[in-house]
Amino acid sequence: MNSKDVTIFDVHNHIHETPSEFEVLDVKGHTAYCVQATKYVDWDDVVRLKDSYRSIIIPAFGIHPWFVERVLSGEIPPTWADELRKMLTQHHAILGECGLDKAARNPETHQVYPFEPQIQLLETQVSIAHDLDIPVSLHCVRAFGALSDVLRKAESKGQLPPLLMLHSYSGSPDMLEQIFLKGELGRRTYVSFSSAVNGRNQTKSAKCIQIVPADRLLVESDLHGARATAAALETAIALVAEARGWSFSEAQLQLALNSRVFFGRYL
Fold first, then answer.
1. 23: how many CB neighbours lie within 10 A of its CB?
2. How much is the mean pLDDT over the chain?
3. What DSSP state is assigned to residue 211?
4. pLDDT per residue over 191-230, tens digit each?
5. How far apart are the first and last CA of the chain?
6. CA distance 211 to 169
């Protein structure tokens, strides 16, 4: 990938899930996509997408908290962590998406996903990212206190990954300022915003965007199909621009610079 040609980075999406929309991908290289596999069985789908669009795809592999029950049941095999290490190394990927979620429910049982196993699942993946010295993309919904505990525990042991992305950040401005942007954790943390999530409460999102250092802001589509990513990214960039008092072009330039730093070795 020639990062000089890239003017927009979609730092978090799942476009591998809709192959029928691959034809709209920006093969000229003006947009780069970090495509995040989440459930073990889709890891190879991201590999195939990367092989087909090598110049614009940054692969990411992980296990999302929504699939923790598959780990517990053995549907995702007990060897998953070793397999994840191999995938990340072999395919030059970042780790993601992983994290914590106290809100989502199993669509079949209508029960929330068990939380303590989520913590164990996340701790394992954070440890893998540290060991491999690679960035990690983090999901968090209504569990920011627990997420901060996991990350501060890793920090106390000197085991934080080199860089962390809080994707589609939906927590409070105070939590962001007082926890995630403090100390060594704060020096490694980037915060990403999407129109899909952050457009729901633009006042709160604007406060968060204003708190994040200018060089730690990122944007994403967080979409599962490629066709709508261009419009979603444009809206996310405009959201950042308005909150910071920047022009659209100023925001686009700053966000691209930030993304090049976050993904440096992958470009």
1. 9
2. 96
3. H
4. 999 999 999 999 999 999 999 999 999 999 999 999 999 9
5. 5
6. 12
At 32 the three-state DSSP class reads strand
* Residue 198: burial class (beta carbons within 10 Å; 0-12, 13-18, 19+): buried
Q: Which residues of 98-119 are buried (b: 16+ CB within 10 A; e: fewer)?
A: bbbbbeeeeeeeeeebeeeebb
d(CA 186, CA 73): 36
Report which secondary-structure segment, H or E, holds 99.
strand 94-101
Q: Which residue has the tokens 């998953």?
A: 80
Question: Quick one: which of 51, 7, 14 has its CA closest to 34?
Answer: 14
Beta bridge partners of 205: none
Decide if pLDDT at 153 tops 70.
Answer: yes
**DSSP for residue 40:** S
Is pLDDT of 1 > 80?
no
Could you tell me which of 255, 182, 181 has the C-alpha nearest to residue 12? Answer: 255
Nearest C-alpha neighbor of 229 from the set 61, 44, 9, 54: 9
Q: Cα(170)–Cα(139) distance, rounded to whole angstroms?
A: 10
Rounded to 5 degrees, φ, ψ at 25 are -60, 145
Burial zone of 142 (CB within 10 Å; 0-12 exposed, 13-18 middle, 19+ buried): middle
The token pair at 37 is: 């596999």
What pLDDT, in 10s, does the model give residues 38-61?
999 999 999 999 999 998 999 999
Listed residue (221, 195, 163, 216) closest to 33, CA to CA:
221
